[in-house]
Amino acid sequence: MEHVKRRAAALELAAEAGVDVLLVTKITHIRYLTGFTGTAGVLLLAPEPVLVVDFRYGAQARQQVEGVEVDGDCAPPRLWATAVDRLTARRAARVGVDTRNLTAEQYLALVSAVGAERLIDCAGLVEGLRAVKDADEIAALTDAAALAEELVRRLPEWLRPGRPENEIAGEIEFAQRHLGAERSAATILVSSGERSTMPHGAASDKPLRMGEPVLVDLSPVVRGYRADITRTFHLGPASPEYRRLHQAVTEAHGEAMAAVRAGVRASAVDAVARKVLARYELDGFFNHSLGHGIGLDQHEPPLLSPYDDTILRAGMVVMIEPGVYVPGVGGTRIEDAVVVTESGCTPLTTSDTGIREL
């Protein structure tokens, strides 16, 4: 029923935009609107919708999708041509497209088939719907977060001097599959010592050493929805300089979470964290955004950054992830998912955010 409601909401917005058929090509949009979990397809969203997939996914789509005609017999190279043929057969006066999700070749073929004058830009239409999560989505995100928390609980068993970062990442991958995750949403990040100053330091063959920080960022997927959590560990006692970094990040994390509520601009939440770090004269070492939306994609609107003035709405799920990365000292980050409410937010991950000295 949720997919039916989502399609109805998308059709209502499309009608307001003057669109007869909304052409949906982004695969996570298609999953959101139909439940199809394959990796290739085109959805013609109209009162009588059609999902075009190639023969690899025909049987799968017919099993997963209800209330949508499935055209699933073409060869993979003919997928786009088949979708365009189905579109032109409808003789729709106005076709909604999001050119950000089309290749240049696809766009030119579409223009040739229906004419540029009949195409209406609908960029952001489905993203706007997806930004506010429904009950099914919150349930999946909550389950993914719980799985991520269990992995964090197990990390001290694996973080031992002499073990390569890659080996730790392998432990995480094996354990999350065993616990029921479909896969990792992103590369598992395990970065130790000076490598912890790399915000996206993918695991390497570097061995863990006593006296070093270890930053771990993991993101298991449950029912298509992603968790995202970062915690910082230290092999042995942390230096006063490193403790100061983590204290600054802890305060920025807490004050930013306290600032989240419906009606607040995304940029305002980001500014709260930067103000805290500026008090410590560490704002110059925080050069990524404070956070992002999360769901079927790892990074979804809104972006908690100085450049996004989106007004937060109840039901959005956003990441709060301040971090500082100081060469010669180390890097530290705390990352948690929260559900925006009218009066504040509800964290999905709540495990200890302090430095964990092992």
From TrEMBL:
The keyword Cell cycle does not apply. The keyword Cytoplasm does not apply. InterPro entries: Creatin/AminoP/Spt16_N (IPR029149), Creatinase/aminopeptidase-like (IPR036005), Creatinase_N (IPR000587), Pept_M24 (IPR000994), Peptidase_M24B (IPR050659). Residues 6-132 form the Creatinase N-terminal domain. Keywords: Aminopeptidase, Hydrolase, Protease. Residues 140-342 form the Peptidase M24 domain. GO terms for molecular function: aminopeptidase activity. This is Aminopeptidase PapA. The gene is papA.
